Hints:
Elements: H1 11-28, H2 32-38, H3 43-52, H4 70-83, H5 90-104, H6 107-119, E1 124-127, E2 143-147, E3 150-161, E4 168-174, E5 184-190, E6 197-202, E7 213-224, H7 236-272, E8 274-275, E9 278-279, H8 284-312, H9 318-342
Parallel strand pairs: 1-4
Antiparallel strand pairs: 2-3, 3-7, 4-5, 6-7, 8-9
Helix pairs in contact: 1-4, 4-5, 4-7, 5-6, 5-7, 7-8, 7-9, 8-9
Amino acid sequence: MNKHVPSWYDDEVGAVHELASDFFEREVMGHAEKWDAQRRIDREVWLKAGKLGLLLCSVPEEYGGGGGTFAHDLAVFEAQGYSGDLAFGVSVHSGIVAHYILEYGTEEQKTTWLPGMATGEILGAIGMTEPTAGSDLKAIKTSAIRDGDHYVVNGSKTFITNGSSADVIVLAVKTDPKAGAKGVSLLIVDLRDCDGFEVGRVLDKVGQHAADTSELSFVDVRVPVSNLLGESEGLGFGQLMAQLVQERLIIGAQAAGAMERAVEETVRYTKAREAFGHSLFEFQNTAFELAECQTIARTSRVFLDYCIEKHLHGTLDASDAAMVKYWLTDKQCEVIDRCVQLHGGYGTCAST
């Protein structure tokens, strides 16, 4: 089966992908049972990723990053999808949190947070979802009311990736609770030795057990006014919407990697597994299923590559970004389900 090489790959991006693939297989998937049991991945793994240059690949070198383009980050996220890992919160840390600070932060904010995030010494999270507000961000209730040189933050967040491990969080708050979307702002909150901040449950999910997905509580947490992201209050909703295009590409890249790995592993398994004197791969139904799954994976990849190329040239719009997230995740579920069926009873087991 011919390996597709994305059009946005060059030798350097390819090298990052190869390095990331080895990292995920060795350091993350190689210890998956441990991470699942403790509901998080150890900080040591983050530090190893930082030493390898796999964090903040597209952040300029002056802020401690890799100095590459977003293609370098996408190579890491795609390698993660290909590995089968769904727990290491690198896409939130590198692809989301770092870019809010890079895009909207002051020089002081960038130099304070980004170098430590690049090494893995500072772990980032983003706090949007609340118990009563998910995709409807203008409905959030967490408030940040100004009191002199500080905001006083009260509220709660849930489903927060890296939640119980994070050192810093970009927090969506209402600086004007009566203004709807125009009252939303983003604050950088230092969670280390933070009075009034508490981690609630690390959620026990039906999957992604090693992903540190947590509930967070803020009671009279005082945050310096200088930690506001952007030139003024009320810009948070627009900032969140502007970053969605890039964030949706991340999900698309992970889905593409997962589909390709599922097909490759199923080809390997069906060639090795025998029934009625033949390998499963030789049966016509198996060939049809694998051909269709490979076609779906390849066409999904081509659409993703098209969107990545547009993003790298600054021309990807919100509609195409939404489509690539929707279509690839939908097809990811379809392809993996069909591949599981070809594994028979072994498809219900943790490994084959």
